[in-house]
Specification:
Four copies of one chain form a homotetramer.
Chain A (H helix, E strand, L loop, with lengths): L5 E9 L4 E4 L4 E4 L4 H6 L7 E11 L6 H16 L3 E5 L5 H11 L6 E5 L12 H14 L3 E6 L2 E4 L3 E4 L4 E4 L1
Parallel strand pairs in A: 1-4, 1-5, 5-6, 6-7
Antiparallel strand pairs in A: 2-3, 7-8, 9-10
């Protein structure tokens, strides 16, 4: 179908990408999702219909098995509505959550892409916009499957791990 | 090969995306290429090796047949060096130049992607960064061929045309 | 009075500072006032009460005697309400309009400050925010009179002229 | 003297304004001074000659008496060179350090202005640029004395205190 509008579900879970500066405490914390006002509203997406689902709001080091079950069931639900899925997730356990979904999602009918950021969305030199833009394109053009998209590279899950010293991900 | 660095040639030709404000004249003009300092230096591209080739610096409405020949031969040269190619081009005749390359480039061995912007790179709400980020990912993950990438959508050349009233491209 | 909220009227007249990019034409034009959404809403002004008055929307080279009369009468009106006045104006004839007000406003009871920008508000490296921030402070701390504030310098009207080659103003 | 270049010394001491995000730790820390590359290089200051003096790099809650002595002696030194002084300082004890200077600096020959920010310099919606721009103008146009400049208001030291709940300063 020509010039079709593609439905994409953007599931947010917190993580560095959505940490916000608390001026009274002087610290960065996960509260509400920030991606809509800071990135989505600025991008030009005439051929995409994005629905935002704020699922969790935590540092990914605090993720429990229950959180991963919740994420898996949300992804299944969105896929069941025939929507591609982009997941925003903290980088520290992103590869673990992605592998958990890979192990428990058989015959994925559409692309599911995980991304996040090394620097929160509110910084001038954050990598959040780059990663979200890449994730939104990846989810459109990759074949069905589970991926991690980061810093201009697509990784196939589960063959990916965070490289903490380089501040990015790498293939294993 | 794991964690391979992919070579990409970024050919610039001018166009709205690289127009710069001339303070003494109060007008927007194509002079030198701007993409390096404004976009490339800010992106995180640990798995890409980008070489910038400033080929032309004109509004695409001024493009002549000679300019298109020059562009075609530059693309051929970069492909011959085993590099993927991203072309920055004015939107008004981007589809025409892309079609010209499509007609004259048989058996393209790697992806060649055209992109540009509706609003020059120097504006806070320019679509240049989005389009360049998308183009740099498209050139990495698409199969060999000639494409136009714009506003989170990949178009197959020559089935694409600018929609001036909507300020974007569309499939035909 | 401690921690008093100071009333300031911001009169906009167009000029480079408020030129907006028209994507279909590819040109910069004066239409509606832009300063509220781009600058005022971002600044922290707990001790100021700013009212915006969009008076004109033209390149200052197009200013007529009628326009200057209109501006003068708006300034008088705001001063009559006991409000300090900041005027946004094109740089090309700013010194002329400021001198016109100087010649026709005797016994100014509060500061009246003119400012503008060399580069429109929408550019990442515009001087608009700097000049507006400086103007809003100047209007608060200068003694009554008519001034031109630009690039971290306060000029006393009418001893000021634009230096076109340097892209700023200078004392004469 | 017409169009004179005014010498200003910018003394940095750390504080929220110059906290930087450490990507490997996920925290905000005071390291080197950031104001030059992020603010000074962007402003247009044709009539100012700014010299940057990075004195300390700490959260102002960690300031000791020794630090305040050091700051006082640096201010004296800069004033002795006939330079106006702008001090960047953490907000939590800025009023205390300013009062310390007020108590120990008699017959100040030029303006000394303290400022800082509620949100670090690297955030898109930081108040750092506003406060630095205001401070640089305040130091030029105020009469000799010690001031705190913040959020478009000039406070006379020592009649000023931080209002933590409002995220700004207030007169006492």
């Amino acid at each position: 179908m020509k010039n079709e509008i593609i439905p994409i579900s953007l599931i947010t879970t917190g993580g560095t990408i959505e940490k916000k500066y608390d001026e009274s405490e002087g610290t960065l914390v996960n509260k509400e999702s920030l991606v809509k006002n800071t990135i989505l509203n600025i991008l030009r997406l005439p051929y995409s219909e994005i629905s935002l689902r704020s699922l969790l709001s935590k540092d990914s080091l605090q993720f429990t098995d229950k959180d991963r079950e919740l994420l898996l069931s949300a992804i299944k639900e969105e896929l069941g509505k025939n929507r591609r899925v982009l997941v925003l997730h903290g980088t520290d356990t992103m590869a673990i959550s992605a592998k958990y979904c890979f192990d428990n999602l058989k015959n994925v009918p559409l692309p599911v892409v995980f991304t996040g950021a090394m620097k929160p969305i509110g910084f001038l030199d954050s990598d959040a916009t780059q990663n979200v833009v890449e994730g939104l394109l990846a989810v459109k053009i990759l074949s069905p499957g589970i991926y991690l998209s980061f810093h201009n590279k697509i990784f196939t899950v589960p063959n990916v791990v965070k490289n903490k010293s380089k501040g990015t991900f790498e293939e294993i």
